[in-house]
Design goal:
Layout (H helix, E strand, L loop, with lengths): L2 H12 L3 E5 L2 E5 L4 E2 L12 H4 L3 H6 L8 E4 L6 H8 L3 E5 L3 H14 L6 H4 L2 E4 L3 H4 L9 E4 L10 H10 L9 H10 L4 E7 L12 E4 L3 E6 L8
Parallel strand pairs: 4-5, 4-7, 5-6, 7-8
Antiparallel strand pairs: 1-2, 2-3, 8-10, 9-10
Helix pairs in contact: 1-5
């Protein structure tokens, strides 16, 4: 058995869940709900006419840079990273939780065998580590650091509820926003992009340079140099 998968399955059991390897890939379940990393579900959003309108893609855009390097410091199941990669970015994904990383790795591997997704996921590289520890010494020239820390808010979407109900067994809401933002800035990016619920406070109480607002979320953009709020 894959050592990493064995560890992930043990950690899933410790959280009262099961990580099952089936014919269609890895599935995380509590016996009732199931969760997997299936990038094919995002194919409609990858059409160029829709992709160009994605708010997260617009927020990450860097003028005069044809292939920006984006660090997704809180990768989760990699959905936003897929959008970045589809828009032509090289994406470095960091996920510290072994179970979520296993699901994401499985999703990337299966997507590599789908014709429409293969060239996209080829621009995505997964690192199974804590970005807070790695970002200050990252050996890459980074254009954008993307932060989407888990937020303890409510949602009206049943599908999103199912996803986060299972993930909340594994990852808790971010408890040290200041350390996360400090690490992101230490990577010396052109900008830090923070995804937040529309009416949520700013990350680490730091005022963004500007924000892009959607219906349910907003993207706060921090352009260095930036001083963290006291």
């Amino acid at each position: 058995m894959d050592v990493d998968l064995d560890q992930a399955q043990q950690e899933a059991r410790q959280a009262g869940l099961e990580l099952i390897k089936g014919e269609s890939g890895l599935v995380l379940t509590d016996g009732v709900m199931e969760l997997s990393c299936d990038f094919t579900a995002l194919l409609p959003r990858l059409r160029q006419d829709r992709l160009a309108r994605e708010l997260v893609v617009r927020a990450a855009r860097i003028k005069a840079v044809t292939q920006p390097v984006v660090v997704d410091a809180t990768a989760g199941l990699g959905e936003d990273s897929l959008l970045f990669a589809a828009a032509g970015c090289k994406v470095l994904l960091f996920e510290s939780d072994a179970v979520i990383a296993a699901l994401l790795r499985d999703g990337l591997q299966r997507a590599a065998h789908v014709a429409q997704l293969a060239p996209v996921v080829a621009r995505m590289q997964l690192f199974e580590s804590n970005s807070v520890d790695v970002l200050p010494s990252l050996a890459y020239k980074v254009d954008v650091v993307y932060l989407d820390p888990m937020f303890p808010g409510r949602t009206k979407s049943a599908a999103v509820k199912k996803k986060f109900q299972l993930l909340h067994h594994l990852e808790q809401p971010c408890t040290d926003e200041r350390a996360l933002l400090h690490a992101a800035l230490a990577a010396n990016p052109r900008k830090v992009l923070v995804k937040r619920p529309l009416k949520a406070p700013t990350l680490a109480a730091s005022r963004p340079s500007y924000s892009l607002l959607g219906k349910a979320v907003r993207f706060d953009v921090i352009v260095p140099p930036h001083t963290l709020s006291q």
